[in-house]
């Protein structure tokens, strides 16, 4: 079962696949990069990001390149 919108009692539907979310450390330094899917309520339009895979950590040799790729492609949708 997909997540359900509490306000509308509707299942969220996938609106974008493979969006990036950046987790930061104290002070705002990049820490981990997650990929998930953006879901949207078909009734009210509320969006959530769901279904994250394994993150890429800042210690990974490809982290900086991957983060830049996600930023350049406008695929980075949230920073937490």
Describe the structure.
With 80 residues, the chain is mainly β. 12% of the residues lie in helices and 41% in strands. The chain is built from one helix and five strands, in the order E-E-E-E-H-E. The chain has one helix at 63-72; strands at residues 13-24, 30-40, 47-50, 56-57, 76-79. Strands 1, 2, 3, 4 and 5 form a five-stranded mixed β-sheet that branches. The longest helix is centred in the C-terminal third of the chain and has 10 residues, at 63-72. The model has no long low-confidence stretch (mean pLDDT 95).
Counting helices, strands and paired strands, the structural category is: mainly beta
Largest sheet: 5 strands, mixed
Shape category: elongated
Unreliable stretches, pLDDT < 50, 5 or more residues?
none
Helix content bin: 10-25%
Q: What is the CA-based Rg, rounded?
A: 14 Å
Number of helices: 1
For the termini, the CA-CA separation is 26 Å
Topology of helices and strands:
Elements: E1 13-24, E2 30-40, E3 47-50, E4 56-57, H1 63-72, E5 76-79
Parallel strand pairs: 1-5
Antiparallel strand pairs: 1-2, 2-3, 2-4
Identify the notable features of this structure and list them briefly:
80 residues, mainly beta, 5-stranded mixed β-sheet, 12% helix, elongated
């Amino acid at each position: 079962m997909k997540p359900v919108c509490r306000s509308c009692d509707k299942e969220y539907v996938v609106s974008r696949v493979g969006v990036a979310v950046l987790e930061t450390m104290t002070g705002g330094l990049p820490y981990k990069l997650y990929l998930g899917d953006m879901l949207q309520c078909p009734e009210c339009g509320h969006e959530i990001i769901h279904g994250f895979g394994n993150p890429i950590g800042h210690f990974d040799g490809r982290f900086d390149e991957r983060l830049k790729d996600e930023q350049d492609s406008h695929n980075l949708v949230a920073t937490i």
